[in-house]
Amino acid sequence: MNSQTRPHHSTDDGADPSTDRGADDLLRNLNIPAWGAVYDLSSGWWRHMPTFDGYPRFEILTYSSPHGQRTSQRFPFDNPDENQVQFGYVSELMSGSLHTGTHIDALCHITCGENDEWHGGVSANDALGDYGAESGDASELAPIIGRGILLDVPGALGFDVLPPHFAIGEQHLRQAAEAAEVTVQEGDIVLVRTGQMKFWPDIDLIRKHSNGSGVALDGAQWLVSQGARYVGADTMSFEVRPSTVPGNQLPVHLYLLQEQGIHIMEWVNCEGLAAGSVSSFLFVGLPLTIRGGTGSPLRPIAVA
């Protein structure tokens, strides 16, 4: 089946709405907010915004305008009698990586081994076509609705922002959870704060004060062992850079996405939650189900 005919479908997000348990979990989570405060956790998007090195820059270009339509006598200015009010419209052309700004990684994003396999042993040699991945792509990303947890690591350790290349391990995540008086539970959406978004979008300040800080492999393993269903952070790569695992440049991505099938969210703005001392909340995130995409822009919100 090719990418033009493959039907849309969504994977299980940890709570199957077709089961009594899934419905019970959803209804219980919808009761989490206590005072109705809404926090926008997204980065915003604009032309030439910061992005991962080597990725194409995000572009927005005007594609059609009233002036151009009038000058070339295109629709709706091609027939003056039918357009006496001189109606016009503006549209645009957008380009760039799906991993720009706040986003979520699809399972096909990370491969490993000589056969370039992503999660489930699917080889890119067999499942990657001219129009993107044929499985494990963004079209399979489910709506994310559940209990969100913020682990404010610098807050727990007495920092304003974590120093550059700080490796967040199990010990630090446990300490952050204890400081916030929360326990990571089965199905939780866990956000890890380093403080980098305090400087957003000044990438030079981020590089100076906190570049490369992120979750280490033992920290990621602990999150999975506690039952986290989705994970995210306020950084470009989620994990600590450079890697602390010899011979493996992105061990956390490999472990979470390729081995465990756990989706990663990056550039999630946790500053509002931290400033409000909000440690648990209703998390809502709706990925764009883009066929063939290795990820999706995401505008997540937290409702406390």
Task: Describe this structure as you would to a colleague.
The chain is α/β, with parallel strands linked by helices and 304 residues long. The chain folds into two domains: 20-45 and 98-303, Putative cyclase (Glucose Oxidase, domain 1, 3-Layer(bba) Sandwich), CATH 3.50.30; 59-95, no CATH class. Helix content is 23%, strand content 21%. The strands form five sheets. The chain has a nine-stranded mixed beta sheet with strand order 1-17-15-9-11-13-14-4-16. Strands 2-3 form a two-stranded antiparallel sheet. The protein has a two-stranded antiparallel sheet with strand order 5-6. Helix 5 crosses helix 7 and helix 7 packs parallel to helix 8 (251-260).
Query: Which CATH architecture of the largest domain?
Result: 3-Layer(bba) Sandwich
Helix content: 10-25%
Stated plainly, the CATH topology of the largest domain is called: Glucose Oxidase, domain 1
Low-confidence stretches: 1-14
Q: What's the story with the biggest beta sheet?
A: 9 strands, mixed
The gyration radius over C-alpha positions equals: 21 Å
Strand % is 15-25%
Order of helices and strands: HEEHEEEEHEEEHEHEHEHEHEHEEE
- CATH homologous group name of the largest domain: Putative cyclase
Entry summary:
By secondary structure, this protein is of the alpha/beta class. It has 9 helices and 17 strands. It has helices at residues 20-30, 66-72, 124-127, 153-157, 170-180, 203-209, 217-225, 251-260, 271-275; strands spanning 38-40, 59-64, 91-95, 103-105, 117-118, 122-123, 128-129, 132-133, 144-152, 167-168, 189-193, 214-215, 230-233, 263-266, 280-285, 295-297, 301-303.
